[in-house]
Amino acid sequence: MSWRPGGLVGADAEVTFYPSDFADEPAFSSSRVEGLFGITVGPRLGAIRPFAKFRPGFVRFAEAPDPFACIAIFPPPIACQLAAGHTAFALDIGGGVEFQTSGNTFVRVDAGDRTLKYPGPVIDTDGTVQDESFFSHDFRFQIGGGTCGSEPTNTNHQPQPPTTNHQPPTTNHQPRTTNHEPVV
Fold this sequence. Notes:
This protein is mostly beta strands. The protein has one helix at 78-83; strands spanning 2-3, 9-18, 32-41, 48-61, 86-102, 105-118, 122-123, 129-130, 134-147. The radius of gyration is 30 Å and the shape is elongated.
């Protein structure tokens, strides 16, 4: 969801629910919820709006759907840490282009880097020991569309002259009819 009250800056929010088990068998999370909330900045150039975005948020990993076997080592594998349920800080930085297609519909193309902060100490998915909390990066590409609340007006942000009604007042030009009967 996006909201642009005018000018260059807009508010942007995205909440995504992933209802299925996550990762290959055995799954360490029965579902995930991701929420990103932030701003977009960019000018409207006719029907096109290039923008940059900055959206902090979270990813919530639910507990594992079934008992999750973990080896008794320290630090544990990251999957073992997440299997108990965990909420990770997320940050999405990137940009995109919004195309006003017709009337009040649009198409939006986004690309960005979503960064997640994982707990530590753990062994990450590459087998590297992370002694402290660490960040992981994912490139994301999205295409979407939607409708605006109302049809855009003055999309080039140029001052417009005041509008006035230049039509002349209407008058009734119907001829009057009278009864001209002779008087006798």
